[in-house]
Amino acid sequence: MEKLLSLILLNKPSMLFTEFVKFLPKIEKEKLLSRDAHIKMAPLERISYMDEENYLDKNPKIAAVLMLFYPKNEMVHLALIVRNTYPGVHSSQIGFPGGKVELSDANLAETALRETHEEVGVHPDKVKIIKTFSEIYIPPSNFLVAPFMGIAHEELLFIPDETEVKKVLEFSLTDFLDKKSITKVNMSTSYAIDIEVPAFVVDKYIVWGATAMMMSELKEVLNNVLPKFPVK
Q1: Nearest of 204, 193, 197 to residue 82 by alpha carbon
Q2: Which one is predicted more confidently, 8 or 169?
């Protein structure tokens, strides 16, 4: 409650988790903006890939991730992870828990839940899937990723897998919806050197590329559903 009062004093939009839950039926029914939302956080060099309709011809690997909301100190938070350093294009990047589909998975939602359990220790029984978001193709790694929004109704104890996850980032809904969470940075990527890319700032970490594009669609949906003024 102290955090809520401080946010109100700072004139930031704020919402208790118990209030957020009331909007889940509307979030579930809200129209997805897909490309219109993705393009807002896509590097210029990436936009051309978004117009391609033949990425399925590349036989992409299929994966799923979980955009998990949960209560912390009565407030709404979103979980992201900092990946460990390893050989590969996604080394040390920030993303959502998730990974490649396995034959034992009944569907992609189960993939997202299983991978989240393996990577950060949140059991699938604690999570309810609310909505499927627009899939996104990742050219450098040839992955086609399905994002799912899920919700846990209790505070979570994250147990990061030491081989895959360096840190769990707990991003408050207040900061996520704040316009100041979006910036532009110069980066060198797998397909370009020293380019300007749009990004989210999460606890001083820079989130860009596919994850930022997923977050953009998620943010658009929430902005279309949630009230524009603080809920007290």
Answers
A1: 204
A2: 169
Q: Tell me the CA distances in angstroms from 219 to 51, 61, 99, 132, 222, one per residue in order.
A: 22, 26, 22, 14, 5
What does the alpha-carbon distance between residue 6 and residue 32 come to, in Å, rounded to a whole number? Answer: 33
What distance in Å separates the CA atoms of residue 59 and residue 170, rounded to the nearest whole number?
34
Q: Please spell the DSSP secondary structure of 1-49, one letter per residue.
A: -HHHHHHHHTT----BHHHHHTTHHHHHHSPP-THHHHGGG--HHHHHH
From the list 62, 132, 68, the residue with the least C-alpha distance to 100 is: 62
Q: Rounded to whole angstroms, how far apart are CA atoms 203 and 224? A: 25
Domains and CATH numbers, the chain: 2-223 (3.90.79.10)
pLDDT of residue 186 exceeding 80, the answer is yes
Beta-bridge partner residues of 170: 79
Residue 119 C-beta-side C-alpha neighbours within 13 Å: 27
pLDDT reported for residue 56:
76
In the predicted structure, residue 189 carries a pLDDT above the cut 80: no
Does the predicted TM-score (pTM) go above 0.85? yes
Q: Locate the DSSP E strands across 49-181.
A: 61-72, 75-83, 94-95, 98-100, 128-132, 136-138, 143-151, 165-172
